[in-house]
Design a protein that fits this description.
Blueprint lengths: L1 H9 L2 E3 L2 H10 L8 E3 L6 H11 L4 E8 L8 H8 L8 E5 L5 H8 L4 E4 L4 H10 E6 L9 H8 L3 E4 L7
Parallel strand pairs: 1-2, 3-4, 3-6, 4-5, 6-7
Helix pairs in contact: 3-6
């Protein structure tokens, strides 16, 4: 740890969230963080703005969208387990992605109101998000700085996410 702290004293270091910066300081308390900066993940705001404009007037009321790798830390199972039985009748859930938990979740939750789509190209996923009513990022792990949250907000979407890790 002293070696890591000494190395960081000589380098300029960028963290993608204040959360990661604090985590580093917790692990290496002797580090001098005066040479560090927090620069959040980049998003292509112009591209996202175009998608938001193109989708104006095409909002699908009640469509809840989740996109990402469907694995244990991403919280898809927790969201579906808790939300599926409580959703109002006019709500549709759209899940885009793939991963080790997709098949069992699809078997348990796919219905006329909960749709699983394969992985989509970036622009197609953005277009679907832009037309959705709300984007949910249900990660239960402490994300460093979720680009999905930044993209949803840049699209002008309501965004539901846990206040964990770098997400806030």
């Amino acid at each position: 740890r002293n070696g890591a702290a000494s190395s960081f004293d000589r380098q300029k270091t960028v963290f993608v969230s204040e959360f990661l910066r604090r985590q580093f300081l917790r692990a290496v308390p002797a580090a001098d963080l005066s040479h560090t900066r927090v620069i959040h993940n980049f998003i292509d705001y112009a591209r996202l703005s175009r998608h938001a404009r193109d989708a104006s007037g095409e909002l699908i009321r009640g469509q809840v969208m989740l996109v990402g790798r469907i694995d244990a830390g991403k919280g898809f199972a927790e969201f579906l387990s808790e939300a599926a039985p409580r959703l109002p009748p006019d709500v549709q859930v759209l899940i885009i992605g793939d991963g080790p938990e997709r098949a069992p979740l699809q078997a348990a939750f796919a219905s006329e109101r909960t749709h699983f789509l394969d992985w989509k190209e970036y622009d197609e996923a953005l277009a679907l998000a832009a037309r959705s009513h709300v984007c949910v990022i249900p990660s239960v792990c402490e994300e460093a700085c979720s680009t999905t949250v930044l993209e949803a907000l840049a699209l002008g979407k309501q965004c539901v996410a846990l206040a964990r890790g770098g997400t806030p």
